[in-house]
Here is the input.
Amino acid sequence: MTFSKTVSLPVSPDEAFALVTQPERLRRWTAVTARVDLRAGGDYRWTVTPGNVVAGTVRELEPGRRIVLDWAWDQMGAGGADLEVDAVDSTVIITVEPTDGGSLVTLTHEGLTPEQEVGHEEGWNHFLGRLEVAAAKGDAGPDEWAFAPERMDEIVAAEASLAVLQGVLRQVVPTDREKATPCADFNVHELADHLLDTLVSLGAMAGAELTRQETATLEDAVSTLASDAIEAWRRRGLEGMAMSPFGEAPAPVLAGIVSIELLLHAWDFAQATSATLTVSDAVVEYVAGLAAKVVPGARGRAFGDELVAQVGSDALTRLAAYSGRTPLSA
Here is the structure.
């Protein structure tokens, strides 16, 4: 069976094609992370929502006009475990046509079974609606489908935490560079530098050699490196012990640090820049459980003494207080 839908976008065909093929643009409407080798025969991999990864090959490419993707849901689940679902073996075709004042984007998904068609129709209607918003406003905003994953482990929580951080970093502007953060040793620029170095280290704990890339925006730099670190942990899995700069530790504990770093630093950046931060209590609660295994042993090194949050504080502010942070307005 086939799903097909056309949407009208108020942008040029080149910009429309970028929205459906470029990782930085894809993250604005349909993916938490995206990696695309944009050539015929190249591989792609998108984390559509936390814990839901699609991967395949670019079958055909007409730059600026048409892309054909082999479409399959990655059967490697969170923590490296195999999911008890069948991969979707189908084809997605996206075409872009110029119109007066904009572009028409047509998405066709072929090869679906009747059971698959229902879910994919709902999904594509959701994301194509977000594409229209992203084309009109530059960003579709937080995706409620990524807000509270149905299942959670250290890797899914990292993807959910990254989605929170991305929303904050898209609001950071160059004039925020020297602003103070709740981390007393760092301003915004220095905190960003620290986070990027930390992500390289977290990737190394999963056996990956990551390098920082020069990018146009802070959001792109962090998203790219965080995606690589999370993918490294997904490949490695959560079994057994792993090495850190401070010695050997259970792999789930070290993988959990990714979520802790991403979510707490989202709070830090939001405090520093007055950016809006959107996060569910479910994600904060899960990451707080991870923090309880890490923070006590790292106080005085990576975290301060536990503080008492003000009455009425939200869940993330309470987690920040547990890690030794105080709101800048306090």
User: Anything to note?
Assistant: The domain at 3-144 is CATH 3.30.530.20 (Alpha-D-Glucose-1,6-Bisphosphate; Chain A, domain 4). The chain has two domains: 3-144, 147-322.
